[in-house]
Protein: glutathione transferase
Organism: Urochloa decumbens
Amino acid sequence: MTRNPTVDFQGILIYKGTRSHHLFQQQQASSQQQKSGAPASAMAEKGVKVFGMWASPMAIRVEWALRLKGVEYEYVDEDLANKSADLLRYNPVTKKVPVLVHDGKPIAESTIIVEYIDEAWKGGHPIMPADPYERAQARFWARYAEDKCNAALYPVFTTTGEAQGKVVREAQQCLKTLETALEGKKFFGGDAVGYLDIVVGWFAYWLPVIEEVSGASVVTDEELPLMKAWFDRFLAVDVVKAALPDRDRLLAANKARREQILSA
């Protein structure tokens, strides 16, 4: 059966199996957590809420953007097997995370939310490039990563043997094309983290997990030296590190998901 790469790829990383005992206890104690970056603006204090899921590489984009802007926010961790009434009310169309609720007004889809955050909180760290051409380029590469790279990486997780070797090479080729947007730069955004870094930033943390789970090697110093170096720089940024999920827990969830896929 033909799969939708984006949906399936999120299905891998946004774990839909049995919740861990630790997370169950967390949810029993409190279904909401307060997370904050730097001091919030007056607008943010009126109410900023993020509906996400702890293992979602799409939801973390929203947290990174808010933290870069220094916006205080309330985080609601969703159980995607039992979605809350609030999530379904705020996003009745796709019923997916992430959703940003700002002063009672919901915005869905992670890349759209990131752009909204940059426009709603104009002070502080700029996310989108100021130059119109550079903004267009950032959006182009973000779309390329979403449409091409995600689809190319998905089969690495779901295949074995010779078939996996073939898809690894295809994924590397796709990432090499994306890597050209890094040439001569510290980050995709230039000297500082920008829009494209936020969109593809999950590669830096989730891809090594995928590699460990699947036994594949995709991003190496030999094949993708600029990307590999960027992984280290991006993960060293304080606001990036602060929002990352526990690696052991993420690894366990993805191992279980891969086993489930391969045994189906």
Notes: The first strand starts at residue 32 and ends at 35. The two ends are 13 Å apart (CA to CA). The mean pLDDT is 87. DSSP finds 13 helices and five strands in the chain.
